[in-house]
Amino acid sequence: MRKKRYQFIELEHVDSTNAHMRRLFEHKFEEGTILTAETQSYGRGRNGKIWQSPPGGLYMTVLLKPVVFSGNLTILHQVCGIGVARGIEEVCPVEIKVKWPNDLLIQGKKIAGILIESIIGSDKVEAVFVGIGVNVNLCKEDLPVRTIFPASSLLLELDSFIDLNFLKHSIAKNLMNVYDHFLIEGFDRLLIEWNQRSMLTGKNVHIQIDDKRVFGKVEGISGRGGLLIRLSDTEQIKEFINGEIIGIEG
Hints:
Layout: E1 7-14, H1 17-24, E2 33-40, E3 58-64, H2 76-91, E4 97-99, E5 103-106, E6 109-120, E7 125-134, H3 154-158, H4 164-185, H5 188-197, E8 204-209, E9 212-221, E10 227-231, E11 237-240, E12 244-249
Parallel strand pairs: 1-2
Antiparallel strand pairs: 2-3, 3-7, 4-5, 5-6, 6-7, 8-9, 8-12, 9-10, 10-11
Helix pairs in contact: 2-4, 2-5
């Protein structure tokens, strides 16, 4: 892999690291520029959900400029998810599992999420903003109440405080290394790792796609980053690029 190719912009407070990075994009920062904030007033997750961002969490956005068309962007959730998982494991004695498309978990409890947004030009991707939120040194009272995949933090799981600076650099290094691997060698080996880490494979799930619900068994993800489900009513395997897991059985 290439030598260190990231730099930090460190702020105390922003509305959203993704939104702030988007506003700074006109300043022509290089790929690998990472904006961090100690707190966010309007941290965001997928589908407009709020990501609670009190002090003690890690909130960052990585600027990428991949030479790919917009149709390839979905897979970056998985690429970056593996990078974040490796970064956490390098600092903490935990095993990170992944949940399609963008969540990271410890023993079924969500401790991190990824939000990817982009600026698309007429014929290329101008910029990709990889927003990362990690529940690090947060107490139970700091976390949202979730009905599925309850929230937790590294502090609660390990019963010890984590050095945010070490963790930040570990995630940055590992994410950029995995991203470089993806650009040079493709997704095949990373696909194997994702499916090994997946906590959904082999389980029956309910998935919401717009106004439709689907039920079936998860077979893994595809080479495009889509979720592969064996439909319960037809036994056919279908790929879903978008959707929300709203229930899990087995």
